TrEMBL record:
One of its GO terms (biological process) is nucleotide-sugar metabolic process. It comes from the Eukaryota. It comes from Reticulomyxa filosa. Residues 1-37, 459-479 are annotated as: Disordered. This is PARG catalytic Macro domain-containing protein. The active site is at residues 87, 105, 129. Transmembrane segments: none annotated.
Amino acid sequence: MAQDELCKKQWSSMQPSDKNLNSNGNGTDKDHSTTRSLLIHRHKVPPKVTEYLTSDDGLLTNQSGLCPVHVLVDGKIEDSAGDIQIDFANKRIGGGVFSRGCVQEVVCVSNNIIQICICTLSFFFFLIEIRFVINPECLVSLLLCEEMRHNEIIAIVGTKQYSQYQGYGNTFEYLTHHDDQTTSQIVNKDLNCVRTCNCIVAIDAERYHARNEHEQFSLSKLRRDLIKCYAGFSVPATISHFWFVNNEITSLHSDSKYDEDADFINIATGNWGCGVFRGNVELKFVIQWLAASLCGCEEIKNIICSDKDKDNPQKERRRALKYYTFADSKCKYIESFVKLCIKNELKIHDLWKHVFSYCEWYRQNLSSVIAKKDNAPEKDEEIWIKTAKGWEASLFRFVAKHYEKGLEELTPHPSLVEEFEWKIDEGSGFFSDSVEPDQQCLPEPQKCSSMHLGIVSIKEDGELEQENHNSNGSDNPSG
């Protein structure tokens, strides 16, 4: 309480001009003050599209091609400026950021600086909480958003990153301030109101345990994850990329780096649900690839567009994946798997058939999969790979075996393994790989001095918006 009173007293003593944001959002230009706007949008998959994705023959007849994939060994999702940034969420937005999560936030305001002191309290720490801490304006959504349903996601547009961190789980720690230089766009000229060109999309994964992690290979879970990813990836460009779909807005910066003529909208994502939620990395990647490929494809457009809308010049663009591996060696085959699929000109229906067939095989051989035998498998030897934890089945190898020299072309990324060598186990004749993951590379911290205030208003169309209409603000600048 004493700290809260100190913060309130320091905030009240500031000059009104100090409490306004300016054109670059750091409160230094007192002659050109602007207000900031935050948009929170709940996006839902249309019923007809949901029906298509859950039908028996929908994806099995889809002739559209797979979207481009760019695999990144280094970097983080939040580094992907101008792209839709996926946040690995809890269905209750924010997860345990204020309760059962493992951080305690203390916000102190002094000399126009928001200092966020983060203390690790326990081992559990979900990625959604990390993003909500480094982009604290996301916390407004906790007050406004109900639990997400199976076909819903929440997009948060216009936040800034205020801090840098390192580590994950019990190694997570705050580093320093972050000077967010993301471009802003004017959304209301009369009020001189701007919005940061940043879109965070929260999608929640299913959580599994050691006793039931095989359930993610069931058809119902496959379809659930596909619908959830499609919901997140198909956020309308009028929401996610408002800065180049609205002809009336203008940029506050002349050096805008966003390309409004690009053929694809990038989705920055990674190992969704593959940490403490125990998701299978290969399966989750393929589901995300399929979902991104479905966005803007002809079959989906024919379902959701009327005859009049089909000729609309501002039609929804297709998506591309920017996949951040976080230096996880479990991702070492993703890039070569993508090249294999592209080389053989796989379509959406081809990849879905392979996934469907693999999951059928997985369930039929569940006893062998769960056992992770120390001895070599008795059948389907080309599907199995030996790891430090024993023999494990591979979706990528299941797909690759259907194509000439496919297994030979499925090679690991050299930067994702410390030391890798294909070898034949003596007496077994099977491939072996027992490499442990590398350590994640972290960027050098940068300093930042910025602050933000705002009030919340509800728009008539159901979207939630935070705008800074006055200079007085509230006593708590964190929202």
